[in-house]
Amino acid sequence: DVVNLERASEIGGRNSGHFVQGHVDGIGNIIDRWADDDSLFFKVQVDSDLLRYIVPKGFIALDGTSLTVCEVDTEEKWFTFMLVGYTQSKIIIPKKEIGGKINIEVDVLGKYSESAFQTLLPRIEQLEQKVKDLEQQLADKE
């Protein structure tokens, strides 16, 4: 099969794009595609465990290509992305049809944020309980 290959960014160099590590976090199913002038849109259905990391105007890597998400529907579990004419001529995604599969790498910064939040959550819950207990003690003294 044809694949996308990109050179890695230099460490310490300017980074004006997204962080792509080259991992495949999951696979999506192309459920729609349409053209609008020279732009090509795709709608991809994914599992909820991946969708939680996909946000409008956020980063996503699809078949190794760093792209920007357009829309997200959490109820129907899909997102859309768009390819401009130049990008269409440089990558393999435009060859994919409805019903095709696409490799997905979600935003690593979202995964790091979730991990950090999960680490802090028990401490936050402890502090909230302590405040509630102190408020109750004050109320009892009044």
Automatic annotation (TrEMBL):
One of its GO terms (molecular function) is riboflavin synthase activity. CDD domains: Riboflavin_synthase_like. Its EC number is 2.5.1.9. GO terms for biological process: riboflavin biosynthetic process. InterPro entries: ATP_synth_asu-like_sf (IPR023366), Lumazine-bd (IPR001783), Lumazine-bd_dom (IPR026017), Riboflavin_synthase-like_b-brl (IPR017938). It is an enzyme of class 2 (transferase). Residues 19-117 form the Lumazine-binding domain. Keywords: Repeat, Riboflavin biosynthesis, Transferase. Catalyzes the dismutation of two molecules of 6,7-dimethyl-8-ribityllumazine, resulting in the formation of riboflavin and 5-amino-6-(D-ribitylamino)uracil. This is Riboflavin synthase. The lineage of its organism: Eukaryota, Sar, Stramenopiles, Ochrophyta, Bacillariophyta.
